[in-house]
Amino acid sequence: MTLPAHLPADELRTLFLFTDLDDDQLAWIAEHGDVVEVPAGEYIVREGEPADCFHVLLSGTIAMSRLVGGEAVETTRTEYRGVYFGAVQFYLNDDSARDYPASVRAVTDVAVLALPATEFAAQFSAWFPMAVHLLEGMLLGMRKNNSQIAERERLLALGKLSAGLTHELNNPAAAAGRAADTLRDKVAGMRAKLAMIADGKIAGDQLKKLVMAQDKFVKKVRNAPELSPLEASDREDEVGDWLDDHGIAGGWDLAPVFVAGGLGVEDLEAVETAAGDAPLEGAVRWLAYTVETESLLREIIDATARISDLVGAAKQYSQLDRAPYRWIDVHEGLKATLVMFGRKIGEEAGIRIVKDFDRTLPQIPAYAAELNQVWTNIIDNAIDAMDGSGTLTVRTGRTEDRLFVEIGDTGPGIPPDVRRRIFEPFYTTKPVGRGTGLGLDVSYRVVVNRHHGDIQVESEPGNTRFRVLLPLTEETDSAS
Question: Are residues 167 and 267 in the same domain?
Answer without folding.
Answer: yes
